[in-house]
Amino acid sequence: MLQSTRPQTLAYGLNDSPVGLAAWLVEKFRAWSYCDGDIEKRFSKDELLINVMIYWVTETITSTARLYYEDARTSPQIQPEQHIEVSAGVAIFPKEPIPVLPPRELGERFLRVQRWTQMPRGGHFAAWEEPELLAGDLRAFFYPFHAESAGAAPVERKG
After folding, report:
1. Going by C-beta distance under 8 Å and a sequence separation of 6 or more, which residues neighbour residue 14?
2. How far is CA 100 from the centre of its chain?
3. Is residue 77 part of a domain?
4. 66 lies in the same domain as 6
5. How would you class 89 by CB atoms within 10 Å of its CB: exposed for 0-12, middle for 13-18, buried for 19 or more?
6. Quick check: helix, strand or coil at residue 93?
7. Which of the listed residues 12, 43, 72 is the one where a domain comes to its end?
8. Pairwise CA distance, residues 159 & 155, whole Å
9. Mean per-residue pLDDT of the chain
10. What is the arithmetic mean of pLDDT over 116-136?
11. What is the pLDDT of residue 87?
């Protein structure tokens, strides 16, 4: 909530203090990942430190915080009567703290959902936490398109 309401205030403090930055980021990793409170179940200390260092040396925590601020002030890009016809694949991770997607029924009003996966574990950092699960789901989503482009008969896709 703080990132979406006062990103600049937060950014000044985090950009000025490596300890503050580390505390902020590590707390997010702990809270937003599928770790049951034990952060080292999902991430090593080296991985966490590398992540903190990338933000520290590039001074990019401000742009990260502002992303939440800008997103909170942006009107939906799709209107109620619109429908996106490009095939969509959706993966829902149980520890994602930011509800980015509605229930499937509502999503299907706007999207041509070809694959909807409720993942058994993972959170906000899914590509880092569960790379095999995410990669497998991506492969399963894109495989029918690959098969079609390779000359196979079109595949009937069901969500």
Report:
1. 20, 21, 24, 61, 65
2. 8
3. no
4. yes
5. middle
6. coil
7. 72
8. 13
9. 89
10. 95
11. 95
pLDDT-derived band at 5, boundaries 50, 70, 90: confident
| Alpha carbon 117 to its chain's center | 14
Three-state SS at 66: helix
Place of tokens 């996966």: 117
Q: What are phi and psi of 90, to 5 degrees?
A: -130, 130
Q: Where are the beta strands (DSSP E) in 17-105?
A: 84-92
Query: What secondary structure letter does DSSP report for 159?
Result: -
pLDDT one-digit tens code per residue, 13-45: 999 999 999 999 999 999 999 999 999 999 999
Q: What is the pLDDT of residues 54-95, one digit of tens each?
A: 999 999 999 988 988 998 888 878 888 889 999 999 999 999
Whole domain around residue 42: which residue ranges? 2-72
Domain match, 63 and 110 both: no
Phi/psi zone of residue 83: left (φ > 0), alpha (ψ -120 to 50 degrees), beta? beta
Quick check: pTM over 0.85? no
